[in-house]
Specification:
single chain, three-stranded antiparallel β-sheet, 42% helix
Length: 402
Amino acid sequence: MRSNLLAFSVVASLGLVQVAHAAEGMWVPQQLPEIAGPLKQAGLKLSPEQISNLTGDPMGAVVALGGCTASFVSPQGLVVTNHHCAYGAIQLNSTAEKNLIKDGFNAPTLKDELSAGPNARVFVLDQITDVTDQAKAAIAAAGKNPLARTRALDAFDKAQTAACEADAGFRCRLYSFSGGNTYRLFRNMEIKDVRLVYAPPGSVGKFGGDIDNWMWPRHTGDFSFYRAYVGKDGKPAAFSADNVPYQPKHFLKFADQPLGADDFVMVAGYPGRTNRYALAGEFNETASWTYPTIARHYNAVLKMIDEAGKADPDVKVKYAATAASMNNVAKNYAGQLEGFKRIDAAGQKQAEEAAVLAWLKKRGAAGKPALAAHAQLVQHLDTSKTTRERDLFVSQFNSTSA
């Protein structure tokens, strides 16, 4: 399951001249009070409680686009996001003759703003409910059969989601954390009328193209603006000329002072997932098979798109967003694979796992349940290799249709 959850990436003590020794990590908001001391020492002036309140100020201004992060930056529903996140909407409104991908777009008035498309969404977080006890009870009641437990969780998920979405205008999803140790139900207002306000020309928004993507340092104007619209009653509604700009409870204000050396930086967003806690075997499978296989597949498709685009400019425009997305993933994976080799990531993972297993063995009886669980996970990983081609094929279909 792709988990688009609000999380924080923390990088402290950013130096402008020399490489900083940053305290990095990805944290879910509920964890922030646990690291309040290090955050304050690093320079955080807001209280951890304030930034873990996802519906308050300022975190209530951070929204999801269904795969990307954005933020309200005005009381009239103006949303700032990345140029590459708005790329689909830019492409949707482009033709070979009127190419907004190349020339950019600016709406002088509200009436000039363009629909971002029927599938464009702005998700505004409304409520988070911890349903861990209920979820675990539903799973336990199914017994020990893995398929029965999976079906029980699926039934629980559907029941919780249906009840949560009883009120019109809301979209709910159940997410698991830390391998199923915690379950939370997220309820979001689903704004369906999203419009393109501004996009820089491709020479700015995608400066350096795919060659510079994922490179450091990188210089590009990777930003665009949307506006969220709702019905006159303030509730989500389909695209209509009668709709009005959404008035968010909170929006971000631009700083009146520039960043300086050693300033504290925290990024709030909706990452897909983190694989930092994967087993060494899972890491090896990813590095030796999954990433190379997906990259080869994407590069083959990109070659087809490129050849078709050269023959027909209209095809090049229509597939621009698809090509950009695939290029993004393929280059990311290639860079990760190069980095894995450079730092011997496989060796590091194996050493970390060996240290944990050794510690568990020293604990005697107290460590046996975890050791048994680890052995079972390794066995499951070996079994999953027999169906990995099929599973990857299905996952790519899900990704394409999302």
